[in-house]
């Protein structure tokens, strides 16, 4: 009976992969690959949780340790509305700003304000080597909304585990 259920599971999984436009490597590899993807997805989620905890705790060192030390990018893109407001005040303003996770980590560790980033509508995709995360966010400072938008992260699996290689987010602060 268990063997028949296992065969049905493999058949269903193979069919699902074909429907999605993929073909399985071999029936023996599908369950292990699926198991690893589930585990890696959970590990990526743990990085997001650690990021949130580090921001709440003002732990800039812990926050910085979540990033790939060499080559990580931090990009902020103003929404149409936010860009129009900034441009009206400062004609030389730029829409896309490249920053650094180290600058954010320093802000987190030195600020007296209470930070609370919230993440909703999260989607995680991974093949076990690289991962992308997409979600909506609201960033609260001392309980007040200071920014909102959508955010995407790229993570890589390094020798030390999952690390953030890139954060790019839209920025639509309230008036």
TrEMBL record:
Signal peptide (from-to): 1-21
Keywords in alphabetical order: Signal
Matching Pfam families: SnoaL_3 (PF13474)
Domain SnoaL-like: 44-170
InterPro entries linked: NTF2-like_dom_sf (IPR032710), SnoaL-like (IPR037401)
Protein name: SnoaL-like domain-containing protein
Species for this entry: Tunturiibacter lichenicola
């Amino acid at each position: 009976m268990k063997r028949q259920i296992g065969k049905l599971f493999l058949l269903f999984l193979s069919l699902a992969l074909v429907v999605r436009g993929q073909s399985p490597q071999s029936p023996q590899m599908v369950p292990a690959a699926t198991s690893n993807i589930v585990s890696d997805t959970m590990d990526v989620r743990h990085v997001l949780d650690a990021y949130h905890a580090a921001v709440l705790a003002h732990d800039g060192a812990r926050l910085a340790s979540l990033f790939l030390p060499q080559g990580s990018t931090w990009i902020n893109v103003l929404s149409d509305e936010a860009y129009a407001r900034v441009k009206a005040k400062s004609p030389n303003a730029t829409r896309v700003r490249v920053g650094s996770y180290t600058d954010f980590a320093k802000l987190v560790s030195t600020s007296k304000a209470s930070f609370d980033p919230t993440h909703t509508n999260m989607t995680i995709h991974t093949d076990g080597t690289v991962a992308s995360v997409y979600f909506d966010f609201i960033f609260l400072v001392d309980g007040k909304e200071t920014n909102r938008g959508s955010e995407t992260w790229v993570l890589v699996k390094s020798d030390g585990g999952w690390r953030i290689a890139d954060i790019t987010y839209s920025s639509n602060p309230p008036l």
